[in-house]
Design brief:
- The longest helix has 37 residues.
- The chain has 2 domains: 220 residues, Orthogonal Bundle (MetI-like fold), CATH 1.10.3720; 75 residues, no CATH class.
- The protein has a 4-stranded antiparallel β-sheet.
- The protein has 381 residues and is α+β, with helices and mostly antiparallel strands.
Length: 381
Amino acid sequence: MSVAQSEGDVPQVKAPARRNADGTYWSQTRRRFMRSRVGVAGAVVVLVLYLICLILPEFFAPYDPESKNAQYFGGPPQVVRFVDDEGQLSIQPFVYGVARKIDPKTMQRTFAEDRSVHYPIGFFVRGDAYKLFGFIPADIHLFGSADGKGHVNLLGTDRIGRDVLSRMIHGGRLSLSMGLIGVSISLILGAVLGTVAGYFGGVTDNVVMRATEVLMAFPTLPLWMTLAAAVPPDWSPTAVYIGITAILALVAWGTLAREVRGKVLALREEEYVLAGRVMGASHARLIFRHLLPGCFSHIIVVATLAIPSMIIAETALGFLGLGVKPPMISWGVMLNEAQNIRSIAHTPWLLFPAIPVIVSILAFNFLGDGMRDAADPQSEL
């Protein structure tokens, strides 16, 4: 018997090694982000906005955005009710009919509820035909008039009788997609040029940084306006959309390039980069396989915080009449119809498109703040 056994020592059994007990960097980031209530709330709102406005706007909008109601142009929002004038409760929501009146002295058009007529609101009703995802024929809408006899305009109509809610939902497709596409282009330019400048240094660094300084020296909004005004007026609406998106992207890449360059200057001296150089790795491999992935967390955060500025830019240009033109619909184009005092005084509901602009900007900012804290390993949410 050995000395260890005589002393009553128990043989130590080596426990099986746990595989990455704390998880990878991305799993840790995801857990930290899920603990951020503000960030998660922002993510949910962003997903809902893109689902409604970008993926299924035809389904969620009760009418075609160009459909006109000749009897209800410039009409105020209709109130959804569950109790009628006699106090009877209705499980199915309804709206009253609308009676149009014209003042014989001022010739001003007014609307009043016609309490003798009410239209029930149904869900998953048939309405204006459309093509789901651009190729599937359909005519089912989330809600609308249950009997198909009346109109349900929850946010009122514009000056030629088009439903404001439907146009607002369809307008979100352009505004949100322009922000997403514009930020994607600016991220590619900024990330690649910033990485190249930080990695090579010297003349390359000077050229890229001087270009960003020249770009950032101009006030953003006047530069957007100048470039947007240079778009030829005879271009088609689709060409104008592409042109405005390219302008917003080309103006916004400079800030990201400077930030990525600073991170690459620190990463290029890391041991794994030096080891790659010694082993003969090409510059392209070091940049795209090692340095850029090291900046991914920062790039993602910048993207979520840059999309709101793109949405504001598109809305501002559309409001000033320098963005996309009708028949294309965006939140800026809709707000352009309410830029005079007369419209605000008589049809204030035309300002409703400002609400999704504010909600989307706040949601993206909340999402960006949550992702920024989650990407920091030292943060405590």
